[in-house]
Structures are given as C-alpha cells and as structure tokens.
Amino acid sequence: MAIEIKVPVLPESVTEATVATWLKKVGDAVTQDEVLVEVETDKVMLEVPAEADGILTEIIFKAGDMVSAEQTLGTLEPGAVAKAQKEPSKSQAATEKPKIETAAATTEKPQTPAKRETNIPPAGPAARKLMAEKDIGSAEVAGSGKDGRILKEDVINYSPAPELEVEGQRLVERVAMSSLRKTVAKRLLSATQETAMLTTFNELDMQAVIDIRAKYKEEFEKTHEVRLGFMSFFVKAAVEALKRFPAVNAYIEDDEVVYHAYCDVGVAVASRRGLVVPVLKDAQNMQLHEIEKAITDFAQRAQEGKLTLAEITGGTFTISNGGVFGSMLSTPILNPPQSAILGMHKTQERPVVVDGEIVIRPIMYLALSYDHRIIDGKEAVMFLRTIKESLEDPARLLLGL
C-alpha cells in the first residue's frame, strides 16, 4: 500500500507553507528517514523524511506551491524493488560511476559553457546535488559557509537576477515576493489590525552595565567559556519585570486572558532567510552565562538554517535589538499572540543632567509596544521603568528590589 508523504505539523499561528525543494524525483529509490522534500514557513525550514524504504511514485505539489498542514505532498511505494535499486552490486557500481560523473551531459537542460567556470567555489555534497537539479552554476551562488563554501540553504535561497523592463524612458524591475516575505507581511498587518497596539518609551543610562561588563568580561569568559554580552542583562531585567506585571506575560484567547507561570523569552536574531525568534524556555531559571550560551548558539544555527521547530515555537514575551543595525528609535510590532515586545536601540553618548550637572552618558532608548486591550498604560510604563531601574542599578536584580 502506498504511503502518503504529508506536510508536517506547522508552527503555531502558521496556516500554510511553501514547498521549497524536492530532493528526490519520481522513480528514485529512497531509504527510511532519508529526506524527500523540504517545506518552508516564515519561521523554519521543515524536512520531510521517508517513512520506509521504497520508490517515490508521485509528486503532487511542486517547488513553489503553497500547502497546509497534513496535506499530501506525494506518495511512496514501499517494497524490495527500492532496496535492490539502492544497493547495486559492486560491478554495477563500477559501471555506473562514469554515468554519475557525466550526468550533466545527459540532462534535458545541459549546462551552458558559461556556467562551467574555471574557478568553482567550494560546495557541499547536498549543495552540489541541488545546483545540478536546478541547473545553477556555482559561480552564481554566494556561499555563506566558511571560506565562502556554498551551503544547501544558499542554493535554496538563490534567485536569478531579475529581468528589467522598460516603462517609458526608464528601467524598472519586477521581482515576485517570496513566500517568506508574503507570510511575514500578512502577520505584521494582522498584528496592527487585530490588536490595540500602543508604544511607550523611556531612556536607559547604560553606564552601570557597561562598567560591569568591562570589569568582569575576561573572568566571565574564562569561567563560563562564553563572552559576556548585553542581551543577558536585558533578559534578566525583563524576567524580573514580567514577574511583577503578569499581564505583560499573558495573552488574550477568545474571551479569556491566559496568564503564564513561566517566562519564555523570544530573542530576535538575524538569519539569511530574515528575522527569526528562537525562545529561551524558562528564562526565569537561567543564569547570565546560560543565557549568553543559548543566544550565541541560536545566532549561529540561525545563519546555518538549523534551528528546530521546537526552538522557535511559543514564547510569552519578545526582545528585539534593532540597535545592532544602528536603529536609534522605533516602534516594534507585536509578535502574536504575545501581548508585548521590548525594542532595544543603539547606545549613543548624549548630554544628560545628573545631580544638577550636565554630563555625557551612554544612553539607549527603549520602546515597549503592547496590546492595550490587556495591558493598561500604567502597567506598561511601570514595566518599562522596572527594566530601566534594574539595568541602571544592577544590584537591584540581586536584591530583588
């Protein structure tokens, strides 16, 4: 009996996905747990493995098609035929080897001489296979791996240069929106239309945190084998504020307010596919070095496209640091169904008044966007002030003040 190849369960709040790449074609022999197809959402790339040894007999949805959870992508016929095909004798392997090396010459769309460049950038086996299937020359793809090595994700994200067209006397280009960008656009629009979003601001004197980091960073790294950054301080301060103001750590579901007895803090990190938000589960129980290690790991694997569905699902509160890109001030958009998001910005030296005197201090603007349906203005202002006070006098975090 044929086995249906189905779209896996999608992350919460995601209703559809895009078929990214079929790694096998109809008639190919496959082994159990071998990845057949990759499905892309706005959050993660999902791999769909074979449930058994067999032959891929049908592909229903092709690359670029939109699909929903549990929808059938194709079919797999289990059986001994596949085993025989995928385990050729040594003599067969020897005779078939030249065919593998010259496979490009027998494809329906042979590579043009222009794509057979002399200096070929290094590429992994999965990337080379995918480039051959897509008829893409390695010189066309920008590698993001070590020493410019081309990764499979680089090939998946590759798009040819857009064609130009003439409007009057000037040139314009039209590029189709990726499924990722379309999904993000829908979610952002939904957040602004379906919530009563409001933003409150405050300014933070970063001098105390900067001094602590400068004093202890070498000892911290030696002891914990991870660099001491600023984000761990913000996570700890946010957790303390979430404990004091539980409405900020809650969300609305139908006619009920759902409160969390834990703090799962999402930290937005950049990847080649866009912004992703891996979650620090039970952040209230984490120490500074544990937070730093987790964030460093998230950032690295986000670039490699290796974050798992569980790591980017959920979250009760989000922190976004636009300051790393130079942003001075912005209003972050809610990450539904969460009710609040903290925006960090660039630290800039500014003149401020301290004890009646004008001094120069490293100042960061903070922004808290929140759903006014569940969080009152007073709660939002006091929540942000708690973060400010905790970071301007970090001893308060140790003393629970």
Task: Supply database-style keywords.
21 strands, Chloramphenicol Acetyltransferase, alpha+beta, OB fold (Dihydrolipoamide Acetyltransferase, E2P), globular, 401 residues
What report would you give on this structure?
The strands form 6 sheets. Strands 11, 14, 17, 18, 19, 20 and 21 form a 7-stranded mixed sheet that branches. A 4-stranded antiparallel sheet has the order 1-8-6-3, covered by helices on one side. It has a 4-stranded antiparallel sheet with strand order 5-4-2-7, with no helix packed on it. The protein is built from 10 helices and 21 strands. About 9% of the residues have low confidence. Helix 7 crosses helix 8 and helix 7 packs across helix 9. The radius of gyration is 26 Å and the shape is globular. It has 401 residues and is an alpha+beta fold. The chain has 2 domains: 155 residues, RNA polymerase II/Efflux pump adaptor protein, barrel-sandwich hybrid domain (OB fold (Dihydrolipoamide Acetyltransferase, E2P), Beta Barrel), CATH 2.40.50.100; 205 residues, Chloramphenicol acetyltransferase-like domain (Chloramphenicol Acetyltransferase, 2-Layer Sandwich).
Calculate the mean pLDDT score and round it: 82
Alpha-carbon Rg, integer: 26 Å
In which range does the helix fraction lie? Answer: 25-40%
What is the CATH superfamily classification of the largest domain?
A: Chloramphenicol acetyltransferase-like domain
Number of strands: 21
Q: Under the CATH scheme, which class of the largest domain?
A: Alpha Beta
Please report the number of helical segments. Answer: 10
CATH topology grouping of the largest domain: Chloramphenicol Acetyltransferase
**Whole-number tally of structural domains:** 2
